[in-house]
Amino acid sequence: METYEKLLEQAYKEIKPIKASSERFEIPKIEGHLEGNKTILTNLPQIASYLRRDINHLLKFLLKELASSGKMHGSQLILQTKIQSSKINEKIKQYADEFVICRECKKPDTELTKDKEFLFVHCLACGAKHSVRSKI
Ligand SMILES: [Zn+2]
After folding, report:
1. Residue 41: which H helix or E strand, with range?
2. Neighbours of ion ligand 1 (CB under 5 A)
3. What's the gap in Å between 15 CA and the centre of ligand 1?
4. What is the rounded CA–CA span in Å between residue 101 and residue 124?
5. Which pLDDT tens digit goes with each residue over 104-135?
6. Is the pLDDT of residue 20 over 60?
7. CA of 101 to the centre of ligand 1 (A)
8. Domains of the chain with bracketed CATH
9. What is the pLDDT of residue 32?
10. Whole-prediction pTM
């Protein structure tokens, strides 16, 4: 008789791998809670890695856009003001539109490249390259 672990292993093997290109691009929603006058966000690193962007870049953008000070404590972002999660989600979407999504083919398979003082979004899907503001 097969062990439970063996059966599980087999089950996993039968699951077809999802092709990266057919996955829907859906930014994870921000998770967190309010604590007194602060907002604690717990999944910003996951969102940064989903967007394949440096968390410091995303963080800088968010702090500026949300007009709040804040900093990372481990994997948590502690904002010094109370901010609705819907507003944070909206700003993350704005970030993706500006720094992640290709303007030509609308795909998220891009990288940020730097050329002198200019910053570009370079699309790995269609090869398009467009400049974005280098100073947030
Ligand atoms: Zn593209």
Report:
1. strand 38-41
2. 102, 104-105, 123, 125-126, 128
3. 30
4. 11
5. 999 999 999 998 889 999 999 999 999 999 99
6. no
7. 8
8. 28-100 (3.30.70.3150), 103-136 (no CATH)
9. 97
10. 0.81
